[in-house]
Amino acid sequence: MTTTIKSPNSNKVKKKSNLFKKISAHKVLYFMMIPGILYFIIFRYLPMFGLVIAFKDYNIFAGLWDSPWVGWQNFKDVLSSPDFSNVLFNTLKISFGKILIGFPVPILLAILLNEMRCVKFKKISQTLLYLPHFLSWVVIGGIMLNLLSPVSGAISSFFTATGIEPVNYMAQKDSIFWVVIISDIWKESGWGTIVFLAALTQVDPTLYEAARMDGANKFQQMIHVTLPAISSIIVLMLILKIGKIMNAGFEQILVLQNAVTMETIDIFDTFVYREGLGRGNYSFSSAVDMFKSIVALILVTSANKISQWLGEEGIA
Question: Can you tell me the mean pLDDT for 85-109?
């Protein structure tokens, strides 16, 4: 009886041939991936070399490589900055507010849209919900100013008609937080339903039939059938939201911010914008941005691990 021993080189050749066969079989899909891969390489990975600015006293005239190294000094300056604690608190407050208040809204909207039986009304509702997403924050800011203006705003006019003195909510430290949260929900909640609506199409209809036979009403079906069925998607989207906690919405805050409310809603992004482009302190702003990225990486990794410990798939 003779035995044949396969060499490691033959296994490698076989694996390579199988890989090429798979690529050639799906060459159209791989070709379609090229623009996305190039986008991430050019706009995501190559700019990472600019992180070296955070460790230098960067001078725009001397250039990146000729600017002197300062080590961790920029990070020390960031942590000792008098604005750092306030900016950190505002960023976390606004981000957690958007998650706690705004994150459930697309889920509820998706469930409500999924329950609609009139197809025409459902399409009209979806279009109206998606529309604010395509408006820029400059337009949204103008709409909020017109709505909340103490002189000619619709809400102020309503208060005046009911005998209540109108308030300039855009210039109140106590109310500007809610303006930020509500405007973000109005703009993005409709667009956020797309993922959850797609997930709801995969729910087995027989589960609802079994629940109805057991006497479950619509609310009980939502609690015991719908939400558990799309729980993995909910957890995935929540992890992605947690990864963006340090990004509380630069364009939105920049538009809604003014001299009175700056202290209340000043976040890392607007802080970096002022320090970097406003004052030309590029090394300091790069250190702030790198701090944000490190914290975001820790948060998304931790959230993913916790979700896996709880039995969900998570990101990977």
Answer: 93
Buried b (16+ CB within 10 A) or exposed e, 279-301: eebbbbbbbbbbbbeebbeebbe
In terms of pLDDT, which residue wins out, 237 or 61? 237
**pLDDT, the chain, mean:** 85
Q: For residues 95 and 246, is the Cβ–Cβ distance under 8 A?
A: yes
Model pLDDT for residues 42-53, shown as the tens digit of each residue: 988 888 888 888
Contact 187, 132 (CB under 8 A): yes
Query: DSSP letters of 242-308?
Result: HHTTT---HHHHHHH--TTTHHHH--HHHHHHIIIIIT--HHHHHHHHHHHHHHHHHHHHHHHHHHH
Chain length of the chain: 316
Residue with tokens 């970096």: 272
**CB under 8 Å to 286, separation ≥6 — which residues?**
50, 51, 53, 54, 58, 74, 276
Nearest to 53 by CA among 269, 274, 271, 289: 289
Write the CB contacts of 299 (distance below 8 Å, at least 6 apart in sequence).
Answer: 242, 243, 245, 246
63 - beta bridge partners? 59
CB-count exposure of residue 270 (10 Å: 0-12, 13-18, 19+): buried
In sequence order, which residues have a C-beta less than 8 Å from that of residue 84 and are 6 or more positions away? 78
